[in-house]
Amino acid sequence: ARYLIKNACAIKLKKIKKYEQQFLALKEAQESAENFTSELDQVKMTLKQTEEEKNRLEEELTRVKNILKKEITKADTEINRDQTIIKEYKQICQRLDAEQASMRAVIKLLKNTLGECARCRSFIETPLLSNDVLSQSGDTSDSVTEENKLSKRITELEIELAQTKLALVESECRNQDLGHRLGVKFSELQASKNTLPPWLQKTLTSIKEVTTNKTNDQQRMIVGRRDSAPNTQSFDL
């Protein structure tokens, strides 16, 4: 005990202050290290959550891409089908116009030929060529039969044309619904845009622009074909 007291008394006061400063510095360094360790753990946890969110968004993006690709393929198929139907209708209308013109020429020639006979002329001038009189008398001419066939075919074409217009409207509605759903999806992805890396943000923006342009092109194409569809009033005999 005496030895310790003697050594303690021998230590200079400056050294005691120096040791005190070193101790305080060491203690502060330990506290800073603990704070840094805690912050590092928080950063690691945040990074892990960000990676999980990134993976989830990438999966969502892949799913949206697949849905978009499927819907665009379906819309292209329907548009091609509608194009084929409209093309066939135009061909049918042209053929009907040609047949109608040919039939009128035959009827005109028949009337001119029968007009040379006085007895036949009086028969032509009477309303005996109406369908009701012909059905009552049992005398059905070839020209009236052909006109009836044409009228029946025109009626069928009008029904099919109405069905085609309805299909075009349904296709347009589906395209609008697709655009709305994709807009909602992109809005959801845009809400979490701050957590995405720059390359993923650029990809999302590119997909949104392509989708908008594709939908607008399809709508303009459908409206153009609908306006160019043949009018049923041109089929009247």
Automatic annotation (TrEMBL):
Record keywords: Coiled coil
Keyword set includes Coiled coil: yes
Domain of life: Eukaryota
Region Disordered: start-end pairs: 216-237
Keyword Coiled coil among record annotations: yes
Coiled coil: 26-74, 147-174
UniProt xrefs under PANTHER family: RAB GTPASE ACTIVATING PROTEIN 1 LIKE, RAB GTPASE-ACTIVATING PROTEIN 1-LIKE
Protein name: Rab GTPase-activating protein 1
Organism annotation: Schizaphis graminum (Green bug aphid)
